[in-house]
Amino acid sequence: MKVLLSFTLVILTCVNAQTITNKAMRTLFKYADTNATDKLTTALNKDNTTAERIKRVTTWIETNLVKKGATVPKGAVEGDKAATLKRVKAFLNQRESLRKLVNQVNDPVRTVVPTATVNEMKKLFWKIDQEKNNDLSLTDPEFHKKVLGLIPKDKQKAVMNKVKSATETFQKKNPTDAKNLLWDF
Q: Where is the signal peptide (predicted)?
């Protein structure tokens, strides 16, 4: 998974915005009103920093965590404000760490394949990311099934080596980000 994740991250180059999907947020806020959750998602996608997103979610949870009439099973994490906030923060931090890693691997990969190829790979990744609702554990394998067709065969090994090296360097220099990338739904 580590190598696959590393390879996936090269594909994310040149992307400034990461769209958080409604379904991802609905998964995190299982007992909240879907309309309220969708409005939150729209607002989060307009925020510029993870700190802004966390502040927004913290405020939102106070009045929107469980919709009127919803029955939350005893002990369900989704009904606990503190536990849910911790989980959502981890999700948002994972997305931010992913963005940082993308920036780290971007330049080395461009030395191997043309920017146009990297952009096509990026488009494919983000399309799959949206389809898989920001779940990196689902996005990564699906992406690997499809991406090799975009990279010239004679460049695949060089791309992998650049990604692996840049990813390892990033993880060593940024242990918190490396840990954040392991988060999963």
A: 1-17
